[in-house]
Amino acid sequence: MGSTSAHNNEGLGRRDLIKRSAALGLIAVPTMSFLSACASGSGDSDDNKVAKGEKSDKNPLAVNGSAPLEIVIFDGGFGTKYAEEARDVYKKTYPEAQIKFSATQKIQSVLQPRFNGGTPPDLIDNSGAQQMDMGVLVGKKQLTDLTPLLDAPSVDDPSKTVRDTLRPGIVEMGQFDGDPVWMLYYAYTVYGVWYSQTALDKLDATYPETWDEMLALCEKAKKQGIAGWTYPGKHPYYIPFSLYPFIGKIGGVEVLNAIDNLEPKAWEHPAVKAAFEAYYELYAKGYILKGTPGLDHRGSQGAWARGKALFIPNGSWVENEEAAIIPKDFKLSVGAPSGLDSSDKLPFGTIWASGGEPFIVPAKAKNPAGGMEQLRIMLSEASSKSFTTNTKSLSALNGGTDGIELSDGLKSGVAALEKAGTNVVNPRLQDWYVKLQKEQIGVAGLGEMMAGRATPAETIKKIQGFADAAAKDQSIKHFRHQ
User: Where does the signal sequence lie (predicted)?
Assistant: First the structure.
């Protein structure tokens, strides 16, 4: 298929390639409550705080070494070993401290009642499907500003602050409105289209740089009984991990910024239309693994790892999450989104990479200094190497990989970042507006479209309606790119 010249004046080229004989109807929008807004009440109170310790060069945050510390970690793709090892360092540093350490996949349902009751833990890895809404937490003033941590001396080199040791963009991701930093994204995640280079080699194929090449490869795989794509059908907000940078590649970063800013008609941009129609074509041509809409993240990743599908939109945690079943000769790789056509605003290689695994210190934590000190320890070179070794992923520390034998997926991620150069995009919907991103854009929007129950045009209209409602909702705090 080639470009459609009749639409070249839009500056986007290949527009009308997806033809459908009839529009498909929408089903009812599911109602979900697991990401409902957290916590009544706001502000900070010193009533329940532990007494501060003595500030010194070795204790720049004035940690009370005998005070209890409670840590809750999301038990997901990265596991908990890295956090347990950092906890042990804290325990060795402050041997009198009683540390309560727990892990769960149900962050919101376990911790929301504690936020409501004013008894949250001191440090939380706020991640996963039940992640608490970041925008709500910030808007309700339920988080501690981590600026003291960022301005504290780093563990390895006291002449540098923690801030000085972080990868580009990490600090900015934790800022929602002005200078305060409300969360520390500990992982550095590469999002994209993940695949097995071995599987492509068996098809005598290379990773497709254009959408025509993508469709041709999917057709070739289909003839061999292999699906082109799968994705977590029960959690379709994974789809944007490749779809959003695809939109940015087609129309430029300003399109993604307009979407993040909840601007009117942002979802009606031609770049969005083109990207949605391209992805819908995967469904229309039968290139999606049968049964995908009913699979959760582990189910879809498992099918992909076993060779039932070539591609899956995901983040770099997938290597660790599926380590037990990914074959040794898999040659795990990540690709930036294939381009639409030669009129794309950004070059091939444009990718989404940003901080992941957001750690927070609640405003009403009893031992906020202890929570920040645990993060300071985690941002040491030793802890960073532990994280990379245990999870096959980069940390927020700018470096920390010397002497480590990088896994296939991690090497591919590093290579993808090098190829991208400055063409790295960072959409903010998933941390600014969690409900909008997951429940509405993901499940009610993209999930329905990719299952064939709604057309791209219907989906765009629906998602724009969700975005407009969020923009008008005065009960939530709104954020904008500066």
Answer: none
Residue 216 sits in the same domain as residue 145: no
Judge if 290 and 226 occupy the same domain. Answer: yes
* pLDDT computed for residue 40 by the predictor: 41
H or E stretch covering 185: strand 184-196
Indicate which CATH number applies to the domain containing 324.
3.40.190.10
Report the relative pairing of strands 123-125 and 332-335 from DSSP bridges: unpaired
Question: Residues 76-124: pLDDT tens digits?
Answer: 989 999 999 999 999 999 999 999 999 999 999 999 999 999 999 999 9
pLDDT of 287 above 60: yes
Strand (E) or helix (H) holding 309: strand 309-315
Please tell me the distance from the alpha carbon of residue 198 to that of residue 272, in angstroms, as a whole number.
32
Q: How far apart are CA 45 and CA 137, in angstroms?
A: 16
Mean pLDDT of the chain: 90
CB 60 within 8 A of CB 152: yes
Instruction: Give the CA count within 13 Å in the CB-facing half-sphere of 236.
Output: 19
Evaluate whether residue 36 is within a structural domain: no
| Domain that includes residue 340, residue range | 190-353+424-472
Is residue 46 very low, low, confident or very high in pLDDT (cuts 50, 70, 90)? Answer: low
**According to the 3-state scheme, what is the secondary structure of 39-94?**
CCCCCCCCCCCCCCCCCCCCCCCCCCCCCCEEEEEECCCCCCHHHHHHHHHHHHHC
Query: Which residues sit opposite 355 in a β-bridge?
Result: 188
Q: How confident is the model at residue 36 (pLDDT cuts 50, 70, 90)?
A: very low
CB 355 within 8 A of CB 430: no
Degrees (nearest 5) of the Cα angle 177, 178, 184? 75
H, E, C per residue of 122-143: CEEECCCCCCCCHHHHHHCCCE
The two three-digit tokens of residue 208, written as one number: 């497709």
235 and 374 share a domain?
no
